[in-house]
Recover the amino acids of this structure.
């Protein structure tokens, strides 16, 4: 066989390979785009349905009233206040402990077997079902620490255990993303390790940390299984006034309203979902503002 025929066959084979690669890439891109479109359309349909059902019931009286057996007189004042208490205390406990743990493991702790075991356990804890944390919180916080009192502090401590691994892992990844040259430059200027962490590493890692913190708090605000075990209250006609008060939260109230036979309860449940989404979007907006502020800062 002549060399010209061999080269022609090689060119044809290369052309066929390129042809199938192009169509394979197009097929994968089409599949990915369709998956995104289906997800977005499903989310849009759910949001549209919630807005249609909930907007007629969303008014000032709904936000300032307590739950009632009559759907048109029901409100979300008590569960909304309980949700704010739980998220606020959870953030107050989770952020310093989670960020401090990540800083210690990444910047101060030696890379030995014990610390690697600690990091492995933290990663495993992030995948534990939330109901397990609820049972743990019932045994440790409610029964042992507070002598059977199902209060806001017990709920916040339980949610802290639930979301703390997420904050630690996200903060570790954000710290690892800071270039080592930044640390070397600070050390060359005579800074000690804590000064390097405080003035160089933390400002650079804060945007990534905020993403992990807001994801963790978003999970905390939407969890119902641990709070159902800790609180066991769905009809509350008072607002928590201290960390020792009993409470309920929006997910529990929404679940209870949806399980009622009257159709109007589904409408006020949809209105409560709108309020819960508004709280989540507000939290995300604050996180985006903080992240953008600290991302612009190093370039100035």
């Amino acid at each position: 066989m002549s060399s010209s025929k061999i080269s022609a066959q090689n060119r044809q084979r290369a052309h066929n390979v390129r042809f199938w690669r192009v169509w394979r890439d197009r097929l994968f891109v089409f599949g990915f785009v369709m998956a995104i479109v289906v997800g977005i359309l499903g989310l849009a349909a759910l949001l549209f349905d919630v807005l249609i059902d909930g907007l007629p019931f969303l008014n000032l009286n709904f936000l300032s009233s307590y739950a009632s057996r009559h759907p048109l007189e029901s409100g979300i004042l008590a569960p909304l206040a309980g949700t704010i208490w739980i998220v606020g205390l959870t953030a107050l406990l989770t952020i310093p402990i989670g960020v401090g743990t990540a800083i210690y493991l990444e910047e101060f702790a030696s890379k030995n077997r014990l610390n690697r075991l600690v990091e492995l356990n933290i990663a495993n804890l992030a995948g534990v079902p939330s109901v397990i944390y609820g049972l743990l919180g019932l045994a440790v916080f409610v029964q042992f620490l507070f002598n059977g009192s199902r209060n806001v502090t017990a709920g916040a401590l339980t949610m802290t255990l639930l979301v703390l691994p997420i904050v630690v892992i996200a903060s570790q990844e954000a710290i690892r993303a800071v270039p080592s040259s930044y640390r070397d430059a600070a050390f060359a200027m005579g800074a000690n390790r804590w000064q390097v962490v405080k003035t160089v590493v933390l400002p650079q890692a804060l945007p990534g940390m905020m993403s992990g913190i807001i994801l963790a708090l978003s999970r905390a605000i939407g969890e119902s299984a641990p709070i159902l075990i800790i609180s066991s209250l769905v009809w509350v006609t008072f607002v928590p006034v201290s960390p020792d008060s009993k409470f309920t939260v929006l997910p529990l109230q929404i679940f209870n309203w949806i399980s009622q036979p009257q159709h109007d309860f589904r409408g006020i449940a949809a209105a409560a979902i709108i309020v819960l989404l508004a709280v989540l979007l507000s939290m995300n907006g604050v996180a985006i503002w903080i992240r953008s502020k600290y991302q612009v800062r190093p370039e100035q």
In short: Residues 296-300 have pLDDT under 50 and may be disordered. The chain is about 75% helix and 0% strand. The first helix runs from residue 3 to 54.
